[in-house]
Amino acid sequence: MKKLLSVILLLSSFTGAYSQYTESFNTTSTPAGWTNTSSTANTSANALWKFTGNPGYAMSGTIDHSGNNGSFAWVDGSVPSGLITMLETPNIPVTGNLEVSFWLKSNIGTYNTTHNTFFVEINTGASWITVFTYSANTVAGAWENFIVDLGPYTPASIVKLRFNVNQNGSTAFYNDIALDDISIYATAPPAPNDIGIGGLIAPSNFCPGTEPVIVQVNNDGLNAVANYSIAWELNGISQSNISITSPLDTVNGVGANSANVTLGNVLFSAGQTTNIKAWTFNPNGVSDTSNFNDTLSIVLKPALSGVLTIGGTIPDYTTIGAALTDIDANGICGPVVFNIRSGIYAEQPEFNSVNGASSTNTITFQSDPTNLTKPVIEFAGTSTANYVAKIDGAEHLTIDGLAFVSTGTTYARVIDIKGTSQFVTLENDSLVSPNSTSTSNLRSVIYMNAGNAPSDITINNCFLRGGSTGAYFRGSSTTSRMENVTFTNNQVIDYYNYGVYYWYGSGSVFSNNVLRPTGAYNFPYGIYFYYQNNAPQIIGNDYQYDFTTAGYGLYTFYCEGNANKRALIANNFVHQLNTSATSTNYGIYVANPNKLDVYHNTVVHNSGSTFTRAFYLSSFGTYTDVNIMNNIFVT
Q1: Pick from 567, 621, 617: which is nearest to 597 by CA?
Q2: Dihedral (CA of 64, 69, 75, 77) sign
Q3: Rounded to whole angstroms, what are the CA distances from 177 to 42, 67, 202, 239, 329?
């Protein structure tokens, strides 16, 4: 881990550049000597640079640039918008013309917004001068290195830099911005004979076993190099030197000025780190007089695969968070199963995108098969982290047989699904939030309000209890929908206003669910479906209530099939048990459908209200190609 403003010699891509100061933001707080402010003096968490947690939306799952399990600085584009967040260095002594290198990550994905603006300023003692501005996605939405020549602005003795984010995007909260590994260099003329190691080529995302270690060697000097040598160490033990006689041309020469060199084959053990240090020497058989770029030091750890344990006696990981940190940093190279032992885990896990995950290399967090009781993960959410567990950009993930319990009341979401999460399954889980008397979605048991980014989400055989809403799903619009959400065989009980609330979906399947509100709200819903296309299937659901209040059992609006498959509402059971109810109740309410079949449903209303409808086909708009057959409707 690099330290703040340490005077070092390190690997660099600069020709003839000597590192003066570095900052890698591994302190998880504002670095010592730096200032973290905003243009409006707002000191709320989202108005300042952050050094813990993780960005959201398309930036979800971000890990530090070097991948060494450290942290990074980032700005949350969420409210308050319209201000400038500023991170200022301490005074830096100047020893020649300066260049600054930093790694930036900015990505809005598919969200419909303009970018926030990142910019760098220098203070020469008289005023702040902008020397760099960026307002776009970085390359591939990943970390990108930028180098800024400060020579025209460098004063004689002292300099300060300021790294800023102007939250001026059209929808600022979609564009979080991350910053890492700042290095400030004093430039110097290139040496005649100067070679160095430019980086590690292999291995990368590798399984335990024997792997070749390959580095890139660069010629950064004025002279072509006919021969050179490499020394290297493995876990502090010197290995045999390597002599190379393949020539390297100069940077602007006609030949190649870099080459990949295999140091040797190394055995990497599962779960173990390996330290490798390599350095070049004797270009053209003479001393290398520029040593800043000679050496590479790196720590490698194999990717994960197989069955691992969390908690209990002699586990692989003591906490879920420790397992997630490891998998985020090192990726996977085969299917991975984490067996979680029984116990209470007072933590707030975040399931992010993992390198190597695929339909073959899946990730499973499950109750250990030997458990007698489910493991319990409990946490109280906050205004900025309202969840017990967050699934943010995860892929091919299954969470099976766990209990998640919100101990918060105002901020009481249990599962928050966001980012580009896809092929995620919650199965056999218990998801519990305190009973609520609020309609706010801040208290939804499952919350997925992330535009069209998540897809292929399955929630099966889970127990959802409490909250304002059992499951709250929302796409962006009729042209930007969530796709293929499957919600089956679940029990949704003791919710306040909505059992399931879903706007803007495509290809949804909701079947065989049991829904029971508390009765505290005067107009509860079982399933609320709004703007659903691509043949949604609503089958075999059971909604019963015994209250004097009004409500809807199943409410659909623009429920539409397509040329290949019809939308279907079938075999559902809706029962209003209370004979003293005097308010209007709707068993099944259908508005503006297209290519819809309503078959074999049973709706029984014992309500005393003359305005109660067992089935209601709304004339609010148009409806076409609707079949209604073999239903039992009783009022």
Answers
A1: 567
A2: positive
A3: 19, 17, 29, 42, 20
Q: What is the pLDDT of residues 370-404, one digit of tens each?
A: 999 999 999 999 998 999 999 999 999 999 999 99
Strand partners, 568: 537, 597
DSSP per-residue letters across 146-202: EEEE-GGG--SSEEEEEEEEE--STTGGG--EEEEEEEEEEE-PPPSS-EEEEEEEE
Tokens 């005097």, located at residue: 582
pLDDT in tens, 431-460: 999 999 999 999 999 999 976 678 999 999
Question: pLDDT (tens digit, 9 = 90+) per residue, 184-194?
Answer: 877 655 678 98
Report, in this order, helix, strand and coil percent for the chain, each rounded to 5.
5, 50, 45
Measured CA to CA, the distance from residue 477 to residue 156 in angstroms comes to 56
User: What are the C-alpha distances in Å from 323 to residues 303, 328, 352, 429?
Assistant: 12, 9, 12, 19
CA neighbours closer than 13 Å in the CB half-sphere of residue 478 = 6
352: Cα separation from own chain's centroid: 4
Backbone angles phi, psi at 510, to 5 degrees: -130, 110
Query: DSSP assignment, residue 316?
Result: S
